[in-house]
């Protein structure tokens, strides 16, 4: 045995126990395939939880990283850098945005957005207008502010007192928002166009358009958390295009760096003016290495053939999973958009999502869960059709074994 080899057991000895990783330790990836320490191959439908949007070891990303690594790695924000400026311009060119703030994670981008909406209201109306309306089952990150805006109490347990001035309405229920909103106190509505951690639940077009109207009527800002749904994931550069609803602020991370940590908050010049010099910052935000890689991601995912390919792969994967669901009676529906799909377990299989994940691993296919009742799929946006077919074949074998034992 290699004396330098580390095992899953070492995790328990050296890591804080807030995660419970599986026994498999991946060591290499190429495209949509991953190999573990023993050389066993898996087809990756997890995508690093919607992060590895161009798969593993993508030659374009490798080239961008290697080229930038020989120039500048990091500068403080006392200075700017070329990759950050190019990426910000690209993001503005491809979205509604006029200004960009860079951070390192979705939580940080959301933290910036939530601070901005309060400061904007404070500047334009006053301190009373500070309340944020968010939604039950939402997820916006793990900082104390973002976990408070997120609508899942389990993530707040033991960390109170939480920041105040946050209310939670029912997702896809406009009437529940109308009961909470007020022109005097509401500064923003924060919503995921597709709730990711909350079960891959898409918003309806009418709901998001209704939120836009409510914000306009009450002088509130509309924030779209596109950390999971953005960066080409739905077959659009960002999901707001699919809904024909333009937010005032949009947050992006995950797929934006294709696996390299980076995040961005996008907004208009008018709203951005409320974060003048010294009001917010990030040591690593706008890191030259991260921005160079993200630039290549954006240059790739904005190509029409890539976005068209996402929709074609989505249809392929969705149909395959629906067929499996019907044959074995395990899924009531397959929902979502593009390559962010949620397979909802039937009543008989409620609470068993983790069993399907483990069964898939046994057959060499990696899937995700989104709660106890939904299997989540977020593969590479350029996963080969042959890999989709093989993944479906392996997953059906897993389902066949799982259901045969019941």
UniProtKB/TrEMBL annotation:
Cofactor note: Binds 1 pyridoxal phosphate per subunit.
Main localization (coarse): cytoplasm
Residues annotated as binding pyridoxal 5'-phosphate: 106-107, 139, 225-228, 283
CDD domains: OAT_like
InterPro entries: Ac/SucOrn_transaminase_bac, AcOrn/SuccOrn_fam, Aminotrans_3, Aminotrans_3_PPA_site, Class-III_PLP-dep_AT, PyrdxlP-dep_Trfase, PyrdxlP-dep_Trfase_major, PyrdxlP-dep_Trfase_small
Modified residues (N6-(pyridoxal phosphate)lysine): 254
Compartments reported by the entry: Cytoplasm
The organism's place on the tree of life at top rank: Bacteria
PROSITE patterns named among the record's database cross-references: AA_TRANSFER_CLASS_3
TM ranges: none
Keywords: Amino-acid biosynthesis, Aminotransferase, Arginine biosynthesis, Cytoplasm, Pyridoxal phosphate, Transferase
One Pfam family cited in the UniProt record for this chain: Aminotran_3
GO CC, any one term: cytoplasm
Keyword Transferase in record: yes
Reactions catalysed: N(2)-acetyl-L-ornithine + 2-oxoglutarate = N-acetyl-L-glutamate 5-semialdehyde + L-glutamate
Annotated EC: 2.6.1.11
Similarity comment text for this entry: Belongs to the class-III pyridoxal-phosphate-dependent aminotransferase family. ArgD subfamily.
Subunit structure of this chain's protein: Homodimer.
Note: May also have succinyldiaminopimelate aminotransferase activity, thus carrying out the corresponding step in lysine biosynthesis.
Listed PANTHER family: AMINOTRANSFERASE CLASS III, SUCCINYLORNITHINE TRANSAMINASE
NCBIfam families: arg_catab_astC, argD, PRK01278.1, PRK05093.1
HAMAP family documented for this protein: ArgD_aminotrans_3 (MF_01107)
Name of the protein: Acetylornithine aminotransferase
Organism: Marinobacter psychrophilus
């Amino acid at each position: 045995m290699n004396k330098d080899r580390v095992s899953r057991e070492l995790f328990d000895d050296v890591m804080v126990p807030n995660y419970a990783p599986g026994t498999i330790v991946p060591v290499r990836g190429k495209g949509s395939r991953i190999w573990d320490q023993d050389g066993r191959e898996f087809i990756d439908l997890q995508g690093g939880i919607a992060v590895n949007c161009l798969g593993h070891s993508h030659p374009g990303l490798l080239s961008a990283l290697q080229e930038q690594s020989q120039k500048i790695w990091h500068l403080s924000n006392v200075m700017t850098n070329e990759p950050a400026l190019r990426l910000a311009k690209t993001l503005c060119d491809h979205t509604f945005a006029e200004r960009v703030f860079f951070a390192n994670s979705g939580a940080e981008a959301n933290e910036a957005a939530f601070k901005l909406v309060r400061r904007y209201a404070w500047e334009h109306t006053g301190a009373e207008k500070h309340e944020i309306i968010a939604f039950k089952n939402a997820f916006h990150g793990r900082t104390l502010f973002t976990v408070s805006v997120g609508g899942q109490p389990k993530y707040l347990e033991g960390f109170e007192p939480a920041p105040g001035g946050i209310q939670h309405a029912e997702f896809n229920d406009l009437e529940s928002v109308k009961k909470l909103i007020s022109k005097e106190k509401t500064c923003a509505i924060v919503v995921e166009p597709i709730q990711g951690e909350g079960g891959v639940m898409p918003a309806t077009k009418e709901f998001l358009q209704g939120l836009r109207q409510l914000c306009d009527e009450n002088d509130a800002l509309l924030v779209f958390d596109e950390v999971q749904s953005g960066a080409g994931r739905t077959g659009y550069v960002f999901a707001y295009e699919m809904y024909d609803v333009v937010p005032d602020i949009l947050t992006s991370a995950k797929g934006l760096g294709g696996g390299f940590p980076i995040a961005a908050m996008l907004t208009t010049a008018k709203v951005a003016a409320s974060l003048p010099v010294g009001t917010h910052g990030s040591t690593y935000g706008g890191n030259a290495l991260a921005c160079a890689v993200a630039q290549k991601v954006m240059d790739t995912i904005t190509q029409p053939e890539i976005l068209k390919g996402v929709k074609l792969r989505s249809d392929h994967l969705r149909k395959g999973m629906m067929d499996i669901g019907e044959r074995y009676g395990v899924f009531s529906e397959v929902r979502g958009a593009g390559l962010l799909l949620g397979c909802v377990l039937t009543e008989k299989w409620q609470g068993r999502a983790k069993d399907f994940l483990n069964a898939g691993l046994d057959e060499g296919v990696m899937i995700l869960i989104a709660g106890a009742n939904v299997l989540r799929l977020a593969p590479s946006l350029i996963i080969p059709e042959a890999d989709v077919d093989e993944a479906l074949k392996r997953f059906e074998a897993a389902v066949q074994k799982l259901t045969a034992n019941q």
